[in-house]
Amino acid sequence: MSRLPWWMGGILMAGLLLMTFSVFGADRPLGASTYVPYFAGLIFDLDPEKYSYLQHIKNPGAWEGVMLLGALLGGFVTSVFITKSFRFSVIPTGWKKYKNKSVVSRLVWSFVAGFVMIIGARMAGGCTSGHFLSGVSQIAISSMVFGTVVMVSLIITGKFFYRKKEK
Amino acid sequence: MQIIVKTAGDDFASRMAQMFETVIHEGHGSLVLVFLIGVIFGGIIQYTRVDKFEKIAGFAMLKDTIVPKMLFLAIGLSSIGLYFMIEAGYAHYHVKPIMWGGLIIGGILFGTSMAIFGKCPGTGPVSIAEGRIDVLVGAIGGLLGGLVFTLYYDDIFKPIMGESAGKITLPSLFPGHEHMVVLIFGIVVTIVAILIPKKELFDEADLSKLPEDQRPDRQ
């Protein structure tokens, strides 16, 4: 089988989340956006003494940084040996169909969206993993507010940013 | 033989080594376990293909519903499991604070850019690992976003995010009925996951590499 069905993915993801939360596992939630400013601090050699946010994220940033390295390996190995999806590409098929065929357009939009996405995630205090998966599973009010706002703005943007019919 | 790792330096390599050192001393799982959690996380995302542009941007266009189905199912199941694990003392709450400015403005920025990028911070790295150059460019944008956020956190972002209005969960608003609220929430979310109509947007470039009998669009 080269693709897992959605329900198997959901069950496995719930299992991984519970293992991460449990005291036998990591005793913390699963998150995947704090590592970005953490790596920015590492790469641009920012002094943690000077920037309060870096002190704030020292531990979760390092934890997610190591997890991210694992995710890169897990994603790479699975894409090469199981899903056979490994190949270099610049424009996604869906972008070609519903947006345009311009490399520059895709790269500029990716760059801008990546930039805005991390600022958004850090302002809200989490992303799809930290807020949605980990937060809503705790039935936290903050994460449910975030989840609702994200879903609504995702669908509104999808409606106006892409063309409806295939080119 | 003793292996000595110098982590006191200030070059990039020792800053990376300090990251591992932090995790070792942090007490949230051994270094190997944290790495393994990442491997499984990346493996599940890749194996279900939810890192694909067609899955996330496809959901934004309402042409693909695999992401919400999988996400809602994972949340429904783990909300019940997690609650009873916490009750039994096998896990703890890690609730994020309610900061209205941060949640709403951050959520709008996040949702809008997620629809355009077709990735989120967890699925993005998995896409990079399968060779997506556009996502790598987006990640460089993300790193600069992280840099700007860190540099101007105190002056700009913290005031917009606002004060914390507390770390509240829905069940705690119904004292005495927490079990009931958790069970209803978990069951309803799981049913919603099953009831969302299944729609899929396929990527021919991906599927053409699979043997005919393994193509999900032919089944």
Structure description:
The complex is a heterodimer of chains A (167) and B (219). Chain A is mostly helical. Chain A has a domain at 91-167. In chain A, 68% of the residues lie in helices and 0% in strands. In chain A, helix 2 (35-43) crosses helix 4 and helix 7 packs across helix 8. The longest helix of chain A is centred in the middle third of the chain and has 24 residues, at 58-81. Chain B has 219 residues and is mostly helical. Helices cover 63% and strands 0% of the residues of chain B. Chain B is globular. Chain B starts with 11 loop residues before the first helix and ends in a 12-residue tail after the last helix. The mean pLDDT of chain B is 93.
Question: What is this structure's SSE topology?
Answer:
The complex is a heterodimer of chains A (167) and B (219).
Chain A: H1 6-21, H2 35-43, H3 52-56, H4 58-81, H5 93-98, H6 103-124, H7 128-137, H8 141-161
Helix pairs in contact in A: 2-4, 7-8
Chain B: H1 12-26, H2 31-48, H3 53-60, H4 66-87, H5 100-117, H6 123-129, H7 133-151, H8 153-161, H9 178-195, H10 204-207
Helix pairs in contact in B: 2-6, 3-5, 4-9, 5-8, 6-7
Could you list some keywords that capture this structure?
heterodimer, A: 167 residues, mainly alpha, 8 helices, 68% helix, globular, B: 219 residues, 10 helices
Shape of chain B: globular
Multimerization state: heterodimer
Number of helices of chain A: 8
For the secondary structure, the number of strands of chain A is 0
Major sheet of chain A, described briefly? none
How many helices of chain B does DSSP assign?
10
Strand residue content of chain A? under 5%
Q: What is the helix fraction of residues of chain B, given as a range?
A: 55-70%
- Class inferred from helices and paired strands of chain B: mainly alpha
